[in-house]
């Protein structure tokens, strides 16, 4: 990547901001590849997404901020901290065979690290609205608030009620909508 930044004018001119759209596009291409069930396609798209990580790390390295090794090191440290059932079983509060307990342990550890000051801290405004709705419901429920939404007459209220229903049923409302759109546009 350093060589590409030196020898390719287009790559040399990119910034974190200018690359944002490509990061988003590559993320959605990975989702599309996952949904296709094509392992080769997924492998290719994961590589393209990884390229974005290397690209951003190279830009940061040029500015003496951090490099790809720092990114990887931070990730490893986070995984070790948040998975004591694997890396420090004597200190773990979750049984390694209890997925729900592991998730709760992860969230407790993360909450201690992040020190959030409001319900939606750390949930990007840019998330797709249905996913953002589910995140809000999850956080409210984690905090002990039972979420009940009446569909009402407003479209937003109806969409929120459907997102809550999907969450309750263990479904991803974004995935459900993508599947429905495919049925609508490709009626095989």
The dominant shape is: globular
Helix content: 55-70%
Tally of helical segments: 10
**Percent of sequence in beta strands:** under 5%
Order of helices and strands: HHHHHHHHHH
Main sheet summary: none
Supply the key terms.
0% strand; single chain; 188 residues; mainly alpha
Q: What would you note in describing this structure?
A:
By secondary structure, the chain is an all-alpha fold. It is about 70% helix and about 0% strand. It has ten helices and no strands. It has helices at about 1-5, 10, 15-35, 40-60, 70-80, 85, 100-115, 130-140, 155-170, 175-185. Helix 8 (about 130-140) packs across helix 9 (about 155-170). The termini are far apart.
What can be said about this structure in brief?
The protein has 10 helices and no strands.
Layout of secondary structure:
Elements: H1 2-7, H2 9-12, H3 16-36, H4 39-62, H5 68-82, H6 84-87, H7 99-114, H8 129-142, H9 155-168, H10 173-185
Helix pairs in contact: 3-4, 8-9
